[in-house]
Specification:
heterodimer; A: alpha/beta; 7-stranded mixed sheet; globular; B: alpha/beta; 8-stranded mixed sheet
Chain lengths: ~600, ~350
């Protein structure tokens, strides 16, 4: 698999967090991207600010595979504490780059590996002036060393540095010097490797963009018209709202310099959810962003928004649970909590992006769905998608104007005699009409409540009224079924077996399917993009005797939902479960599918 | 006390509504409940201050108090949400539309127990709203457990004594940076109605802690929040009057005996001193509250006010048009903006 001499390599860089390695890794990754190569960067970092082990994996794949790779070809051991273990991870025949300022302890030596040293500490000590920056610049040395070993042109590194630190010439110069020191040292020492050569592909990434998924979602929310944004800091979702804070002023400052938005850092998630509901009730496009623990706290509000029928959007960037779990690792284990959040009978709309472009699109669409269906909408992200720099097609401009659903204007109210009944199913689709405070019409007001209510929003404990309400809410959910984003069918291999994936499992699943096809086992692939699912999923299940469902959790949460939706096909669905906190790999998926096929 | 200035005695007020237009659905609370008297004061205050009901949003959490927003101003939007989260809901509502007049009605459990955090942070933000706490020291809807405002030593109907110190809402509010803090008593409409009128015209969070005896679960001998004990121990700072802008203010201002505070939105509060206290003096307000607490007294009146602090809409630098009324033209960036954005993410 790794025998390709050109543009196929997986480099793992082991460092200490807070040591400046994040900058080094980003520069390296962006440079490879700039060479036009398909690449992905996976940050495996600790829940800590400084001093703990952290790893960054850069994969280059001429074939365009962007998932985390199963095997590590090159290990950069720049963290003494993990070096012995890190060396164990390298595949036979792989390469280890180490800091040979001091001799490598024998425990780090393994047969069958190539060792290349670069005296990073010594180079920095000898050649870099003592400044606050210096301590963090040792890591730039390996950037230069790797660049020379694998063929990343210095010119590109220089451009990326300028692009990244544009207004800080001192930082650019100092970093460039370190990179050059590493680069020149490798030239002079004559070190070589034959694993892989990186060859630029002119125009290869010309139309592609690079961003974190949280950035994509944040920008999508801005284009979706989000005006009230409430949040409480939590990994891995914080950067979503932080990106909004950074970006929104350029788009939403009025001529007087005032803001056409409000971003509120709440005192807790109980408050951020309730604030969002207050804003949604009053007609603003309101959203919050959080992760598992925050969503746990928000559950009561989820039920309130569902029952009172308040439009609002939850961006959920999942991490390892339960409890505090693994805050800096990825998982898809909050599906049930999104789909059936709150006590009582509920069913919620869930949008599932699988890359940056779809995160942008689903983010703006979420506000339309929320208003169309007057209900909470969840945008299901995860740490892998949200916090890693991913490459994708550019964001596409929203193809439709704001959908405010059945929001009544004064004219519309007048046209129907100046009256409306808040919870009456006027059209038989389960969706009632809605007014918002500030609508100056004597017939506009109603009294919303989270307790039992009739079609006029009055308090009711009547058993028939209550059951009718629950049934109408279910009807509304059924209406949504065919209007939510449709799943995407790939391959069309036409075999007996199929694979279903969703969200960030997309990349490793595609790669796994290519491997299976190459091994003579072609399978169709259906990618879910939303809940509730519709008839296309039924057709897929009906058309395949065996369907493997890839999900990154222990309890097969999506499998449970599909088995519940299509009990007649329950036995056909075989969950493929990956839940160690690391982004799924093609190898893991292939192994689990093949295990299931036996 | 001064003679109330000639009020509009006609059938309608300045927004051409009758008192009846400010009424709501029939109360389902216990007969004689203090909360119903507070509702009547809210109706009086809103009618007399000529508040436009279409600009009002009524908010509440859970509990007996939360029900009362249904008993006044049927022409206003209302939202009876979940326990303890009314302050946060109001914050979102206030950001979505800062031109609304939010009237929140909460209880002592809703505010001082389950909602203490959100209540405190709403105050820190100085969200514009009139926030009433119908404070009876007891959980009514769940039939009579102590709440966090029950005084130490007060007794339940069946005799159990409360061992914990009470959360004193006015003291807490001042500590959190509140800009309008008052306490009153449900049975004192003459004091309560003008306080509500002032609160409705305040720029920022107006906290009104209103003692409101629970006739069913907390009105017995040994309870500090019984009607009898409140009546015996309330201690008014001043006599208060709210003078709308359209009324003439008496010229004979008596230096030292009277304090006048112009409200941000409209009108003026006049305070005829019974105690030596200027409600613009924060540390003195805290001092008096502490003294009253030690003596088992309920200090009432406008305890603290600051009309100059920016409210949350100002702090957030919100645009003039309510966010909820902005359209796609103002909110969605142009295709050219997206092109630039995409270009910035390419290398």
């Amino acid at each position: 698999m790794s025998g390709e001499p050109v543009n196929d390599i997986n480099i793992c860089i082991a460092t200490e967090n807070g040591s400046g390695s994040a900058s080094s890794n980003t520069i390296l990754f962006k440079s490879i991207f700039k060479m036009g190569l398909p690449c992905s960067g996976k940050n495996l970092f600790p829940s800590n600010i400084q001093g703990l082990p952290t790893w960054y994996q850069i994969r280059v794949s001429g074939q365009g595979y962007l998932a985390r790779k199963d095997v590590i070809d090159v290990m950069v051991i720049f963290n003494e504490r993990t070096a012995a273990k890190d060396v164990e991870q390298v595949r036979p025949g792989g390469l280890v780059l180490y800091d040979d300022s001091t001799p490598l302890p024998p425990s780090r030596r393994r047969d069958g590996l190539t060792y290349v040293g670069v005296p990073a500490w010594n180079l920095v000590r000898e050649r870099i002036k003592v400044t606050q920056l210096r301590a963090k610049q040792r890591n730039m040395i390996y950037v230069g060393a790797l660049a020379q070993l694998f063929g990343i042109p210095l010119e590109i590194l220089r451009e990326v540095l300028a692009d990244t630190f544009g207004n800080k010439p001192v930082v650019i110069e100092s970093n460039l010097l370190c990179i050059e020191l590493g680069f020149r040292h490798m030239e002079e020492s004559g070190s070589r490797q034959e694993l892989c050569r990186l060859e630029p592909v002119p125009g290869g990434n010309k139309t592609r963009i690079m961003a974190e998924g949280n950035t994509a979602a944040a920008l999508g929310a801005i284009f979706g018209g989000a005006t009230v944004v409430t949040w409480y800091p939590i990994t891995p979702s914080s950067s979503l709202v932080e990106e909004m804070i950074a970006q929104i002023p350029q788009y939403r400052t009025d001529p007087a310099g005032k803001k056409r938005y409000a971003i509120i850092q709440a005192e807790d998630e109980l408050a951020s959810a309730a604030m969002m509901i207050g804003a949604g009730f009053c007609g603003a496009r309101a959203m919050t962003s959080t992760s598992g623990p925050g969503l746990s706290l928000m559950q009561e509000s989820v039920g309130l928004a569902y029952f009172v029928e308040v439009p609002c959007v939850f961006f959920i960037v999942q991490r390892g649970g339960p409890s505090t779990g693994l805050p800096t690792r990825t998982q898809q284990a909050d599906i049930t909590m999104m789909h059936q959040g709150s006590h009582g009978d509920t069913r919620h709309l869930v949008l599932i992006p699988h890359d940056n472009a779809s995160a942008f699109e689903m983010a703006w669409r979420a506000f339309d769905y929320a208003e169309r269906f007057q209900t909470p909408v969840f945008v299901m992200m995860d740490l892998d998608l949200g916090m890693n720099l991913n490459i994708s097609e550019p964001f596409a401009y929203p193809g439709q104007p704001f959908d405010r659903g059945k929001l009544l204007t004064v004219e519309a109210l007048e046209a129907q005699g100046g009256r409306f009944r808040r919870y009456l199913d006027v059209d038989g689709d389960g969706i009632p009409q809605r007014t918002v405070p500030g609508l100056e019409h004597p017939g506009a007001a109603y009294f919303a409540r989270g307790s039992g209510h009739d079609v006029d929003a009055s308090y009711s404990e009547d058993n028939r009224v209550y059951k009718e309400l629950l049934d109408r809410l279910r009807r509304k959910y059924e209406t949504a079924r065919d209007l939510m984003p449709q799943p995407i069918l790939r391959n069309g291999a036409g075999g007996n077996a199929g694979v279903i994936s969703f969200g960030s499992s997309f990349q490793p699943t595609c790669e796994a399917l290519d491997r299976l096809a190459a091994a003579g086992k072609p399978m169709d692939h259906l990618m879910l993009r939303a809940l509730p699912v519709n008839g296309e999923v039924r057709d897929f299940l009906a058309g395949h005797e065996r369907v493997h469902l890839v999900e990154q959790n222990r309890d097969a949460q999506m499998t449970q939902i599909l088995r519940d939706e299509f009990p007649e096909f329950a036995a056909r669905i075989h969950p493929v479960l990956i839940y160690d906190g690391l982004p799924a790999t093609a190898g893991e998926i292939v192994q689990l599918i093949e295990g299931g096929e036996r | 006390m001064t003679e109330p200035a000639a009020r509009l005695t006609a059938e309608v007020n300045r927004v051409h509504l009758s008192r009846k237009d400010y009424e709501g659905s029939e109360s389902t609370l216990c007969r004689g409940c203090g909360h119903d008297a507070i509702t009547a004061s809210i109706i009086t205050a809103c009618y007399e201050a000529s508040i436009d009901p279409r600009r009002v949003i009524k908010l509440s959490g859970i509990g007996c108090s939360a029900k009362t927003t249904n008993y006044f101003m049927n022409q206003s939007f209302g939202f009876n949400g979940i326990h303890g989260r009314m302050a946060a809901m109001a914050t979102g509502a206030g950001m979505a539309n800062h031109t609304l007049i939010p009237i929140g009605v909460s209880g002592d459990g809703d505010t001082a127990s389950i909602g203490l955090g959100n209540f405190s942070h709403m105050i820190r933000r100085n969200l514009r709203m009139c926030y009433l706490v119908e404070n009876n020291g007891v959980y009514g809807l769940t039939k009579g457990q102590f709440s966090a405002t029950a005084d130490r030593g007060t007794r339940l109907r069946k005799g159990a004594a409360n061992a914990l110190e009470a959360v004193d809402i006015p003291s807490l509010a001042i500590l959190m940076g509140a800009t309008f803090v008052a306490r009153s008593f449900s049975g004192d409409r003459k004091q309560l109605a003008p306080l509500i009128e002032a609160a409705l015209n305040h720029k920022g969070t107006a906290v009104l802690d209103v003692l409101s005896p629970c006739v069913t679960f907390n009105d017995h001998e040994g309870s500090t929040k019984s009607l009898k004990n409140i009546r015996a121990n309330r201690d008014a700072l001043h006599e208060i009057d709210f003078i709308p802008d359209y009324e003439e203010v008496r010229a004979n201002y008596k230096e030292g005996e009277e304090i006048r505070v112009r409200m941000h939105e409209a009108g003026m509060v006049t305070l005829h001193k019974l105690k030596d206290h200027d409600p613009r003096h924060r540390s003195h307000a805290m001092h008096l509250l502490e003294e009253a607490r030690a003596a088992g007294k309920f200090l009432t009146g406008l305890i603290y006010i600051d009309e100059d602090a920016p409210d949350f809409a100002e702090i957030q630098e919100l645009t003039e048009t309510p966010l909820s009324q902005l359209g796609q033209e103002e909110l969605r960036p142009s295709p050219e903006a997206l092109e630039r954005l995409n270009a910035s993410l390419m290398l």
